[in-house]
Amino acid sequence: MCFSFCFLKIKDLILILIRWGGNFLITSFQEQTGHAFTKTQFKNKWDGCKKDWRIWNKLVFETSIGWSSELGTISASDEWWKEKIQVNSPSS
């Protein structure tokens, strides 16, 4: 769910928030998915997705990795994964 939420066009999301406010976004999301969230929950989700997207975007542009279209995953050596997990862990 995070990635589908994250890949909303940022421009579209900003326009929705400016024109109709957060209530429109909350109502539309609830109608389309059946899930009700508060403005705070949306903000927390957005912030988490933005962080995940930045990490993913950084990983995609690394030169020592590839992208597996079949699996929809990043393909890299075990050493590369160990290094990136350590660098991007919450404790670092």
Could you explain how this protein is built, in words?
This protein is mostly helical and 92 residues long. Strands 1-2 form a two-stranded antiparallel ribbon. Helix 2 packs across helix 3. Helix content is 65%, strand content 7%. It is elongated and about 45 Å long.
The shape is elongated
Mean pLDDT: 75
The tally of beta strands, per DSSP, is: 2
Write the element-wise H/E pattern from the N-terminal end onward. Answer: HHHHEEH
**Low-confidence parts, pLDDT < 50 over ≥5 residues?**
none
* Helix content estimate: 55-70%
State which percent range the strand residues make up. Answer: 5-15%
For the largest beta-sheet, the strand count, sense and barrel status come to: 2 strands, antiparallel
Helix/strand structural class: mainly alpha
For the termini, the CA-CA separation is 26 Å
Query: Strand order within the widest sheet?
Result: 1-2
Q: Please give the radius of gyration in angstroms.
A: 17 Å
Q: Can you count the helices?
A: 5
Q: Could you give a quick summary of the protein structure above?
A:
This protein has 92 residues and is mainly alpha-helical.
